[in-house]
Amino acid sequence: MIQLKNNRIKALIDPLGGELTSLQYEGREYLWQGSSSSWRGRSPLLFPIIGQSLPHGWEYKDKTIFLDNHGFARQLPFEILEEKEDFCRLGLSNSEETQKHYPFAFVLEVTYKLTESVLKVGFSVNNPQTEDLLFSIGAHPGFNCPLSSGTQFEDYYLEFNRNETISRRYKDEYLTGETSPVLKDQNRLNLNHSLFDRGAIILSGLKSDKITLKSEKTSSSVTMDFTGFPDFGIWTMQKKNAPYVCLEPWFGVDSTQGDSADFEKKEGLIRLKKGQEFSCSYSLTLT
């Protein structure tokens, strides 16, 4: 386990999955610690897909791509490439095993950097092969909700940094094509568990690039800057009334029922030419 710390924040990163497993601010844990009765995860890295494979996978040239939900990166050991008191860099590359299910060569790196009250998480993907590299990537951090004692889940809301008029996209196992309005010229979404009775709130095309989990009953908050990410998920496991919420910036999105099995047509894929590198990052500011 890698420990990063400064005078305000302590973070733990597990080389298995390159996953953030603890995020403490002034001694208080902000990251969901997992539970066998609801969601065991904490902050998995999603790569090389978002969501589930189609029932029979996708076809790419003469190969079939079939992956576990959100891809394999979260289940594999990363190599520690660099480690300092407030910074670390980890890497994962293709193997014979990954290429059985995903026929691409890749070099994936994740970085974690502490600066005062901010944790910045960076992703980079490099294409070392001759043919194009196709992938999605995203983050899935879960936060304790409530953040402070004496408050409860329903005391919290999500505040976007711009007013939004946007509909959520519904999914069953896959996106259904159904949508419904979730915000109308508003920047505040009050949390309650019934919002998630039909699964994640999936948003595409937000104008905002920041979202804050907060409550009027406490000064504790988490602000995520997700500049550049085109899709966003908000989730807690339905029907569990569990005390956490996930804020998920994505490059990519779940497949839609009835989608083509042609992998190149999957919504939201990034395409890298030989030798190209893709990078993105998000940050968490804690109070």
Automatic annotation (TrEMBL):
Annotated protein name in UniProt? Aldose 1-epimerase family protein
Q: Name one GO biological process term.
A: carbohydrate metabolic process
Q: What is the lineage of its organism?
A: Bacteria, Pseudomonadati, Spirochaetota, Spirochaetia, Spirochaetales
Known Pfam families for this protein?
Answer: Aldose_epim
Q: Give start-end ranges for the coiled-coil region(s).
A: none
SUPFAM superfamilies on file? Galactose mutarotase-like
MF terms per GO, please? carbohydrate binding; isomerase activity
Q: Which InterPro entries match?
A: Aldose_1/G6P_1-epimerase, Gal_mutarotase_sf_dom, GH-type_carb-bd, LacX
